[in-house]
Write a structure and sequence with these properties.
Elements: H1 3-11, E1 28-31, E2 38-41, H2 53-69, E3 74-78, E4 85-89, H3 100-113
Antiparallel strand pairs: 1-2, 3-4
Length: 119
């Protein structure tokens, strides 16, 4: 290495070091409180569930069956589309997830989308 190359090395601006891309948050391992099965939790969800998907579905089914067995009453739910609350009788099968207005809009949209008489 010549003297000239050493001087150039001192005078040259330091090149910025490449920083590694920020790593995605590590997925957490959690065990189900009911069945003990291990499942992963994404930190982006904002909460840590206590039950796996299968157990959660089973718990929801049991809760719905328990509501149906009792005396007839009105159930209050929040609409999945618009967020408004609506009520329906407990003997309705299956339980609706959309309010009557949103149900009508969705049905009309489906009929229009899959209509045989297209213009």
């Amino acid at each position: 290495m010549s003297l000239l190359e050493k001087i150039r090395g001192f005078l040259r601006e330091d090149e910025p070091e490449e920083k590694p891309a920020p790593a995605e948050p590590q997925k957490l391992k959690k065990t189900c409180k009911k069945c003990g099965k291990a499942f992963t939790v994404d930190p982006a969800w904002g909460f840590v569930p206590n039950f796996c998907k299968d157990c959660r579905r089973q718990i929801d089914k049991e809760k719905e069956l328990k509501q149906r067995r009792g005396e007839l009453k009105d159930i209050r739910r929040q609409c999945k589309a618009c967020g408004k609350f609506f009520t329906f009788p407990s003997d309705t099968a299956p339980y609706p997830t959309y309010c009557p207005d949103c149900r009508k809009r969705r049905q009309a949209a489906q009929k229009e989308k899959y209509s045989r008489n297209k213009a």
